Amino acid sequence: MSKERARRRAEREARRERAMRLNQERQARASRRRARLARLVPRPVRVARQGGLLARRRRAQNAVVALLFVLVQVAVWLVWGAPFLSFAVFVLSLLLIPVLLTLAFDRRT
């Protein structure tokens, strides 16, 4: 009886050892494949956003300016609807945005 248990235990341990070896080989192949892929594919350079109060304030100001720009364009299109007038307001808005940013938010450098 004990010889039979010892034989079964030896078989279980052999199967466990074989499974562990296969798992290690699989992991080694996967890590080699990932390393090869990492060498072939360049990673994009990630530009981190500035944090802090000033950067957050600047993003909020830019969002407000963009929203106002879009609202002005939509209002001109809905009120007058003439393509030439809409284009003229669009160009004028693009030219006046830097001036308004400088005056409203004191962005002198």
Short description:
The chain has 109 residues and is an all-alpha fold. It folds into two domains: 1-46; 53-105, no CATH class. The protein has helices at 2-40, 53-79, 83-105.
Computed structural class: mainly alpha
State Rg. 33 Å
Percentage of residues in strands: under 5%
Instruction: Please tell me what the overall shape is.
Output: rod-shaped
Low-confidence stretches: none
* N-to-C span: 91 Å
User: Mean pLDDT, as a whole number?
Assistant: 89
User: How many helices in DSSP terms?
Assistant: 3
The tally of structural domains comes to 2
Strand tally is 0
Main beta-sheet annotation: none
- List SSEs in N-to-C order: HHH
Fold and architecture overview:
It is a single chain. With 109 residues, the chain is mainly alpha-helical. The protein has 2 domains: 46 residues; 53 residues, no CATH class. It contains 3 helices and no strands. It is rod-shaped.
Reconstruct the topology from this structure.
Elements lengths: L1 H39 L12 H27 L3 H23 L4
Helix pairs in contact: 2-3
